[in-house]
Amino acid sequence: MSTKNLEYNSKKIISSESSRKRVIVIALDGVPYSFFPAIGEMNLSPILSSLHKTNKIQTMTTTLPPVSSVAWASFLTGVNPGVHGITGFVDRRQEGYAPFVPTAEEIQVSTIYQHLSRIGLRVCSIGVPATFPPVPINGILVSGFLAPNVERCVYPIEEIETLRSFDYKLDIDAWSARESDESLITQLPKTLSARINTAIHYLNKEKWDLFVFHILETDRLHHFMWRQMKDKEPKALELFSKLYGQIDSFLKNIMERLTEETALIILSDHGFTELKKDFYLNRYLIETGYLSLREATVNNLEGIAPSSKAFSMAPGRIYLHLKGKAPNGNVSNDHIAESLRQEISQSLENVHDPETGSNVIQKVVDMREEWNLTGFDKSMLQLPDLIAIPSPGYELKGDLSGNTLFGTDRFSGMHSYGDAFVYLNGDDSDEKLDITDMAEKICSFLGVKQMNKEPNLT
Ligand SMILES: [Zn+2]
């Protein structure tokens, strides 16, 4: 999205300091709704437990696929991934096969930050995925996951000094954490502590109408330690207790600031479950004849043969090799495309784990229906035709280099489908909520007009 014309005049503040409505959003990445009873049993966070016991935590539906950058892009825009265009951590453009990491520039719709900035409200956002590069807003924007480094993650750039003074980090060093538990155990609380201190600084110092703080450390903890926590390994329990304890103290601090005029939203973007095995979906498409490679092993989609009928990108996104959607696309007939969709779906829904006999894939979803895409596909990225939803425990990978269907992983936790939660104070309705409803809720709390959700064609 173009960043021109997005300089905002902070003198346009529309309401007076004393009476203005404000919203705080605390994002707990990857904390499942179904985990709340265990949060109570393990005494991880008295605040989260008490909210759950008083029925204030609700289940919330989220995006397909349940990937952080996809889900937070839906939080920011109020639309599904088929409309905002971000469908995974890695994507490809229609003119080629080379993979790239989509950024906020690929988001096809205005964000709530841009909407509020245009009407003169101030936004302070720290660490939210899918906000890199940090476009100018009326306020402060510290980009989150997938920003390459702290130096390039903040608007306005002068705020880099503040981040440095708190030793702010975007994320833990996941490679080092993969090497040793000790590295994970040292890094996680330290990174979270620096980020919480930064958030408290901006809560105190900045004028804001919307304040959003995203905690990525819960997702990291769950990827590395979910099984060990379920198995009650002392090292894992200690780290859960420490990290959730830090979050609890921070939430206590936030609760003490709440007034009649301040709404609080706490939410997650997806759930978590134990990871049992990786399943290499492209290898399956090769073995069933839908995909062929130019050479025995290739590193990415640039190596697929022109005759291929379909290919996949993680997690579980399946693309027909359609004429007009890829340089060598050869599926040009609607009837052929339709039967391919059905064949591939049925085939995948019948894959069983040879060791256990259980289904690897629960269901394959036709994304035209799921995203209501009739006649709409303006993105320069090809949207997936199908998305495979795995049975709990099977992580769907997009690698092309291996020659086995199943593999193991250093991680012991994986994102689950659905099972996100939301807490909304100041909203007593019991409607079913989706992550795409949050932008509208924020506008309602602030008492401002709703945002335009039409694709931004500039
Ligand atoms: Zn994750």
Low-confidence stretches: 1-7, 9-18
Count of alpha/pi helices? 14
Q: What integer value in Å does the Rg equal?
A: 22 Å
Q: Looking at the chains present, what oligomeric state does this protein adopt? A: single chain
The top-level CATH class of the largest domain is Alpha Beta
- Shape designation: globular
| Lateral arrangement of strands in the main beta sheet | 7-6-5-8-1-9-19-2-20
The CATH homology group name of the largest domain: Alkaline Phosphatase, subunit A
Counted beta strands: 20
CATH architecture of the largest domain: 3-Layer(aba) Sandwich
End-to-end CA span: 7 Å
Largest sheet: 9 strands, mixed
Instruction: Calculate the mean pLDDT score and round it.
Output: 91
Each distinct ligand: zinc ion
Question: What's the helical proportion of residues?
Answer: 25-40%
CATH fold naming of the largest domain: Alkaline Phosphatase, subunit A
Question: How is the topology of this model organized?
Answer:
Elements: E1 22-28, H1 36-41, H2 46-53, E2 57-61, H3 68-77, H4 81-84, E3 91-92, E4 99-100, H5 112-118, E5 123-128, E6 139-143, E7 154-155, H6 160-165, H7 174-179, H8 181-205, E8 210-215, H9 217-230, H10 234-257, E9 262-267, E10 271-274, E11 277-280, H11 281-287, E12 310-313, E13 317-320, H12 334-349, E14 361-366, H13 367-370, E15 386-390, E16 394-397, E17 406-407, E18 413-416, E19 420-424, E20 433-434, H14 438-446
Parallel strand pairs: 1-8, 1-9, 2-20, 5-6, 5-8, 11-16
Antiparallel strand pairs: 2-19, 3-4, 6-7, 9-19, 10-18, 11-17, 12-13, 13-15, 14-15
Helix pairs in contact: 8-9, 8-10, 9-10
Zinc ion binds next to helix 9.
